[in-house]
Amino acid sequence: MPNVVALYRHPVKGFTPESCESLRVQSDGRIAGDRVLAFRFADAATPEDRDGLDYWPKSKGLALETFPGLAALRLSFDEHAQRVRIVHGEEVLVDAALDAHGREELTEAMTRFVLDSPDGKRLQRPGRLPLALVGDGVRSRFQDRSRGYVSVHSTASVEALSAALGQDVDDRRFRSNVVIDGVGAWDELDWEGEVRIGDVTLRTAGPIVRCLATHANPDTGERDAKVLTTLTGKVGQAEPTLGRLLLLDGVNGAVGDEAGTGGTIRVGDEVVIG
Which of 34, 74, 245, 273 has the greatest CB tally within 10 Å of its CB? Predict the structure, then answer.
């Protein structure tokens, strides 16, 4: 029987994932505490509108696709105290609350880090500085898509990609919420209909087409694996795809839709497909 072997949430868009024993799927289909904050460029500190929903394109803020060095940072978020701590190696870059003063400390620390990194010139482009830390630390708002999804991939797919690459790749590269075992490589791409994980009923949405963020080593921040061209080359995909989006049953993502039931997903939960 397929089961959950790892769970992750990403409190700050584009930064280190937190490994969790359980994740709460909210009634809007988003993971509680996942992508509740984001560092945005000066000219993109307010959302764009997409079909009546807020949309925050990752190209207009700090994200691994453009700033791979972010992967070398270790970030922790205390949602009760509303504090963010960011560490690089043995150095604490910043540890601050989400009040006005703390947000200033956090943006200054990230600005210094990125400007001093090999990615620094990208941050100096017109309209990007000063950075703005947006989000209230509660609402999950900064996914790559305006609708709320749960993302999932299988260990078998990552192992198949590792074999094609000729090197081991870490699950964290793919920034999924849920990692499962007990299915064949790429099987999740063919799922249709209902997917039940523990006591949460979801349904399949689209496959996840990957970007350059997957090339960044999740420990060093170096681009050391050609994931995209391997998926379209040796693996033979039309688009570089790994993993699946799942939508909470009862949530369509449009304004005014009825909320879903939500629930909790735990490590070890069984996964029932179809």
Answer: 34
